[in-house]
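Hello Y.,

Per our agreement to keep a running log of every chain we model this quarter, I'm adding this entry. I've kept the format consistent with earlier entries: sequence first, then predicted structure.
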Amino acid sequence: EWMTNIYNALEHRKKQFKKVKFRLPTEAEWEMLARAGKPVENKYPWDGEFPRNARGCYLANIQTLKNVSANGSTCPEHDGGIFPVKNTSYNPNNFGLFCIIGNVAEMVSEKGIAKGGGWNTPAEEAIIKTQQKYTGPDANVGFRVVMEIIEK
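Predicted structure for the entry above:
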């Protein structure tokens, strides 16, 4: 609401629209934006069904812990992001949106639901269709707003 009020009150020659509304996307809108024209059955916004490319590099900032010993201890595979990273650290999707998968799970308008997984979300859960639940502040959850044009 704050961002909407500030934008709509502006009197500036560079302002593109007379009246807008900033809000969280619905879950369906978020999924459409994440897919960016890719088929509905895709797990990720990129081509392929894996969180890594052919060279083994991760395509998103997600949890990369793996069991490395018989006693169940873990270690990171050094993807470079063990916490949220600069949003341009990974390639954007076809709509130009960075970190739509990974970095931080993104709140949607449906209460308590975030999408896309974050830096601490395992790869198998950091996919377009999966919901992450949250009940309060969480270092793995953030938000991305959409701007709805009310009046041009």
